Amino acid sequence: MSDFRRVNDSLSVSPQVSEADMARAAAEGFVLVINNRPDGEDPSQPSSATIEAAARAAGMDYLYAPVRGGPTPDQVEAVRAAVEAAGGPVLAFCRSGTRSIVTWSIGQAMTGADRQTLVDQGLQAGYDLSGVLPA
C-alpha cells in the first residue's frame, strides 16, 4: 500500500501506486489521479493503462503526464491545469513522488505562489523543493 503524502488541500503525492490503492484513494476523497511515471521504468511497475482502469473503475478521473528527468513547460502546465480543474483533491504519483511534487510546485510558482510556502509544503510532505524553485 502506497504512502499518500498530503501537500495541501488540493494535492497529495505518492510513490508508485498499485491497482488496489485506487479504491483507497477514491474512499479518501480523491477525484483525480495524475501519473507522472513513464511506462517501463521498472519491469515490476503496473502500466499506466492498468492504473487508469482501476482509477476510473473507482470513480476517479486520470491524467497520464509522464516526466523523464525534469518536467517540460507543457507537462508543468498540464498538471497545473488538471489540479486547478479537478474540483477536489488530487493524487499525483511517480516512482518516489519527487517528479510529481516538483512538476506541481513549478506550476504553482509560475502562477505567483509564494516560494517559501511551496518549500514548506514540500518539506511537510517529505520533499525538499529548496533547490528546485527559483529564489
Automatic annotation (TrEMBL):
Record-level Gene Ontology MF annotations: hydrolase activity
InterPro entries the record matches: BLH_phosphatase-like (IPR005939), Prot-tyrosine_phosphatase-like (IPR029021)
Annotated ranges, domain Beta-lactamase hydrolase-like protein phosphatase-like: 3-110
Protein name: Beta-lactamase hydrolase-like protein phosphatase-like domain-containing protein
Source species: Caulobacter segnis (strain ATCC 21756 / DSM 7131 / JCM 7823 / NBRC 15250 / LMG 17158 / TK0059) (Mycoplana segnis)
